[in-house]
Design a protein that fits this description.
mainly alpha; 4 helices; 63% helix
Length: 84
């Protein structure tokens, strides 16, 4: 048996603490992402969570339905011009 295989067999299962710590960090990262999405939605007045469906509705409707585009509703500072 090679030394690498012996080392692997001897130390098998000795890194469980690192694996549990890694899994906990990944779980916390997921919680932070969900919290960031929620806080962004609250900050933008609940426009963030409905923006995706609005884009799909905008793309499927007639061009004259939304005057100025969807960006005007969410970020009024920028103006979007559509060339005919």
């Amino acid at each position: 048996m090679s030394k690498a295989a012996e080392y692997f067999i001897i130390h098998l299962g000795s890194n469980k603490g690192y694996a549990y710590t890694y899994a906990l960090c990944e779980l916390l990262n997921f919680v932070i992402v969900v919290l960031n999405i929620y806080l962004t939605d609250v900050f933008l007045g609940n426009e963030f969570s409905t923006y995706g469906p609005e884009v799909f509705r905008f793309l499927s409707e007639d061009p004259g339905e939304y005057a100025g585009g969807l960006g005007i509703q969410l970020i009024p500072i920028f103006e979007f011009f559509f060339l005919n």
